[in-house]
Amino acid sequence: AVSSLKIAGGNDTCVSCFLEKYGPAETPKAFAVSKDGAFGARWKSSFTVDEVREAALRSCRKKSSYRPENPCVVFFENDKMVWKP
Fold first, then answer.
1. Contact at 8 Å (CB) between 26 and 43?
2. Sheet order of strands, 39-43 included
């Protein structure tokens, strides 16, 4: 997943955030990235997958490295890569 993460999110995406924080987090969870290196992750057991997905995308869009020309996309939902190259 890490090599795909670097493609989807550019080389500046926080790989350690994905591996150390997102990986062991409770479900439902979602991890979003943009090619600018912006990322966002959300997890909360009382939320639905749709809610954590939207929260991850909102978080990604708020990062200083985010640029609208490279929109945030969902990379992982729960423990499955949903991003397609």
1. yes
2. 39-43, 29-33, 73-77, 80-81
